[in-house]
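This entry is retained here.
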Amino acid sequence: MSSLRRHRSRLLFAFLLVGALIIYLWRNSRVEHSQDNSIRVAAARYGVEPALVKAVVWQESRFNPSVRGRAQELGLMQIRDEAAREWADAEHVRGFEHEHCLDALTNVLAGTWYLKKMLKRYAQTDDPVPYALADYNAGRGNVLKWNTAEAATNSAVFIEQIGFPGTKAYVKSVMGRYEKYRSIFAR
């Protein structure tokens, strides 16, 4: 009889484990698609691939619009005050405050505008995405140190020359997610 009881306990445990996994995956899927509308709007407005925007949002905030960074970055795309104000000035947004970046759409608009600016900055390269991502993460001054010689136009060489391990990992991580999300937005 104790063998039957153990079998039932194991079966119940397995059932609960599978149920918990299903709930986890369902919730994760909901969160992962929670910002798709804002991402599509911003991507269309600024001519940036929505998959790239979504990959940056995933990396920066895991789709949490209220996240705050250590250097006062805000929201989905972790926008700093200077970049947010630059966007607001360019778009003639009156009465703008950095706290407005806690609104998902405002944040993704500002972040996508800024990302587009970075992509244009490196348009002469074979693939401006890694350069733009490194700039977004570590700043232009650091990118200028890393994009010397062949790395000035060859993105594969550039990625290997990135001097900060965290920034190199950031670029690779976002690019991996970018590839994953391309199939989502291809529909």
